[in-house]
Amino acid sequence: MEQLTILLIVIPLMVAPITALIPSEKITWLLTLIVCLISLAISGYILYAVIDGSHVIYELGGWRPPWGIEYKIDSLNAFVALIVSGIGCLACLFGYRSVPDEIEEKTIPLFYAAFQLCLLGLLGIALTGDIFNLFVFLEISSLATYALISMGKNRKALTAAFSYLILGTIGATFFLIGVGFLFAASGSLNTADIANRFSTFEDMQLVETALIFMVMGIALKAAIFPLHSWLPNAYSQAPSTVSVFLSATATKVSIYVLLRILYDLYPIHYWVDMLLPQIMLSLGCVAVIYGSYRAFQQTEMKRLLAFSSVAQIGYIVIGFSLVNQLGLTAAIIHLFNHALIKATLFIGAGILLYRANTTELGSLRGLGKDMPWTFAAITLAGLSLIGVPGTVGFVTKWYLLEAAVEKGMWIVVITIVVGSVLAIGYVWKIVENLYFRSKRKTHIQDVHSGDSGIAKAPKTMVTALWIGAALCIFFGLNTELSFQAASSAASALLKP
Amino acid sequence: MMEYLVGHINYWLIVAVMMVGLYTLMSRSNLIKKLAGLAMFQTAVILFYVSLGKVTGGTVPIISEKYSLYSNPLPQVLMLTAIVVGVATTALGFALVIRIKEAYNSVEENEISAMDEKE
């Protein structure tokens, strides 16, 4: 059992260099899918073992903590690892036809190698209990991400990747400075050790500065408003498979790090006294309104979805800055729910891009009638994004509203309602263009839109899309599993 | 006051290097200069860690009967990793700049964004 945890890191680490050397797109795809499936199985198994509140502890190299690096897995760790590997599988399934379409043949093995390294980095962040180790994994996943984004078809992908590289590195370096300050104060890098001995160095000014540096650095990585400027370009220019994977995992994992810092590393009363919850709550509210409004303005589907991500991150921020059990549970559930919804929608956008070679809503008019299955799944995911009862989005919003009412924060309640109304607006925009507008006969990739050729999306893509859409409904109706994992994680975080 | 300033001279200098890096990064339009600023910024953090581990009068951490005061070796070990990360970031950044130069025929950020907007 203990050995299984490290396999999550070791398998992609060993397979990635091999993948880079194999000159066949099919085999590299298969290897990546196998790695993702194994990771999914292991993290599912670990989550099943720790959901009752127990821990799985692995000491790297047999060194006892706090000297050695320790992986201490509780339900939150396992939950995030499950999200990452599950979305990895979906993205991989989708990528079978999408990657050869968008990436040059000779770079496909490198693409999959980078994909596995990114998976490895994100899994590592989710599992490790050592803050310096976390920084290293953060940089592994980020470096892989920059490379993946830059492989987009349009040359704008290069500038998007470059500006993400600059901002991401600043964020990671800020985090490193914070870790240094905390290390100077505590003499330790182990999360549990620092938390246990916190009262002995609590009075130092350094500790407060360290918190601010770490929160700032990670907020940049998590694209919390107003530090989100890299996100829309990066997600909309990246190859479709990468958009699917990153939109669902990268920011979620950063939010997870933020949760760990605020709730685990530092005692809750410490940062509640610093006005931090109020600041983050207001930023979250602004993010919801701003992100939804900007999404509403967009005319290109991937950009629209990227701005909607900014808004959805706002909901998560609101959830955990309410500092109560329900709010925290809502935030953790939404990590999962939003990952599902956004992955599904980006897969939908990827299918449209594959068939019509564009995601400009104006050029996609009427395509929904030719692609009923794809269109139906996109609509289902869109409804989840709005938060219609029976979908995953509703579950989050319900708990979030309950948490806000419990705290008496009416302004938050209003924000959530306004955000949902704006979400109806931008989802309707997609639906209207795809279904209710009359067709435009345009030549796209030598195929008339409206021809039967354009209507046939590859089976693997549609399967991935429908797995995502079905899960959106399944976890909306059957909330037990996700709720149990999230509330067990939330109570572990809130425990003094 | 004077003692405080002089006693922390290494930190003042490191903060100066850090700010020069950050300023270069933000103020320059040339992508290569931006990367140079980024590298300086990262280097300053590395210097900060290394100076953190220094103990006045301490020796290298090798067990010997003659010495009882050692410098902390851990920050230096950590920074070996951070240096590798920094090199990888800079290398990837330069690779991107080369691709950008091929695609846009320019490495000036304002020219590139002007070209992007025209599309």
UniProtKB/TrEMBL annotation, chain B:
The chain crosses the membrane at residues 6-26, 38-57, 77-98. GO terms for cellular component: plasma membrane. InterPro entries: CPA3_antiporter_subunitC (IPR050601), NUOK/Mnh_C1-like (IPR039428). It is found in: Cell membrane. It comes from the Bacteria. The keyword Transmembrane applies. Pfam families: Oxidored_q2. The keyword Coiled coil does not apply. It is a multi-pass membrane protein. Keywords: Cell membrane, Membrane, Transmembrane, Transmembrane helix, Ubiquinone. Belongs to the CPA3 antiporters (TC 2.A.63) subunit C family. PANTHER family: ANTIPORTER SUBUNIT MNHC2-RELATED. This is NADH-ubiquinone oxidoreductase. It comes from Glaciecola nitratireducens (strain JCM 12485 / KCTC 12276 / FR1064). The lineage of its organism: Bacteria, Pseudomonadati, Pseudomonadota, Gammaproteobacteria, Alteromonadales. The gene is mnhC.
